Amino acid sequence: MKPSRMAGLVLLALTAACSRAAEPFIIPDLADVEYASASQMNGTSKVWEHEIRDPERIAPILARLRENNSGYHTPTRPESSEQSHAIAFVGKNGVSLMIWIGPDWLGGFDTVMEEGGGIISRYRPLDASEREALLALIREPDPKGRVKISNGRYL
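Now predict its structure.
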């Protein structure tokens, strides 16, 4: 067997050993979401951030997340790059679902906690068409929401 092929098999085995299948996210009901906070990141800096408060805008985002809510693994994080976008779904008790969007992966966490009280992050592959469909739902500011300006304050 070629050394490159052997190295690939070893890497695949190590990845599988460090990762395990995970449950789908608990997607909140629309009635339990007060607003969604959407943002675009560039490294550790925010390019933009705005709230989506219109239920008619939040419902399709939740529906899109429900459509492909499987195939998650934990705890291995994709190494392809950092997240480019994030969506936090906020209810009366705080954030019920946090979604991170990378170039070819989707991840995040919900209200399910580890035995020690830590969050359980989950990740799955994300194809280009699904990524673009999700981003199209969050890019435009909501007239009913607020836009965060550079000093961290909302307009």
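Residues 20-138 form a domain with the Dna Ligase; domain 1 fold (CATH 3.30.1490).
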